């Protein structure tokens, strides 16, 4: 019996080797091991200690779950098989506190970590402090506003990357279109985009739908609700095929929409049999809940299709 288990660290240690040792081992090493000053977290990666300075100033000043998940994944055999960063040129978008930047650098990559100007001081501090004397290539830190002056500041002819990495850059903000433009700008033939994210909002699904127009995508892993994908740019022909598929989907949605209207208009002249079936299927007993169900259905449908296509890619 453990009294006052708190964070559960002692319980985890006591649990010892009873179940799946390796899994437990890396999970434990990626949870913050201790706080030795407010605003600092300490992690261990491949036996090396990483101390990250955080603050509550902005989204970029705290560590987000997708960064943790991708770091953990890259420590696994599967991760290293899929993402080989040794001596590769890597660009990170929205690097934030720099936890992932540190790990990328420790894995031997030539990293350029980017973010908004106000984030760069802390990012540079964490990156240098944790990699000095342990790194193969000196990392660069650069300002990058998504979608802004990309051709001037990062021309494609001189800025080619083997990998572009981004964690939790899709959430509720006004720059999703600019983010997609940025991903497309940097993903040239031969570039692999590694994108890890939690799916939180309906707007995330819109981003994903747009993303699928331009990228072939494979789901590598799901860890603690974070999905880790690799993606490559589609050719213009493939983009065209996807647009046709989307048009077909829109047609189907229009049909669904018109059957919805028929269902809520009892005096409608359309076939009552079909409407009754639709209402029963959605288990709606009034107009408002029908509306809600229809909306939910759309979100679920979009998401299921996204997951299905990611899984098909993985099998293919
Ligand atoms: C949710 S945080 C994720 C940080 C880090 N990748 C992680 O997973 O811990 C999103 C990051 O994107 C950056 N960001 C947000 N909007 C941006 C924009 N318009 N241009 C460039 N970076 C942006 C933020 O400063 C922040 O560092």
UniProtKB/TrEMBL annotation:
<feature type="compositionally biased region" description="Polar residues">
    <location>
        <begin position="266"/>
        <end position="275"/>
    </location>
</feature>
<feature type="compositionally biased region" description="Basic and acidic residues">
    <location>
        <begin position="236"/>
        <end position="247"/>
    </location>
</feature>
<protein>
    <submittedName>
        <fullName>Methyltransferase 21C, AARS1 lysine</fullName>
    </submittedName>
</protein>
<keyword id="KW-0949">S-adenosyl-L-methionine</keyword>
<feature type="region of interest" description="Disordered">
    <location>
        <begin position="236"/>
        <end position="300"/>
    </location>
</feature>
<keyword id="KW-0489">Methyltransferase</keyword>
<dbReference type="Pfam" id="PF10294">
    <property type="entry name" value="Methyltransf_16"/>
</dbReference>
<dbReference type="GO" id="GO:0008168">
    <property type="term" value="F:methyltransferase activity"/>
</dbReference>
<dbReference type="GO" id="GO:0032259">
    <property type="term" value="P:methylation"/>
</dbReference>
<keyword id="KW-0808">Transferase</keyword>
<dbReference type="InterPro" id="IPR029063">
    <property type="entry name" value="SAM-dependent_MTases_sf"/>
</dbReference>
<dbReference type="InterPro" id="IPR019410">
    <property type="entry name" value="Methyltransf_16"/>
</dbReference>
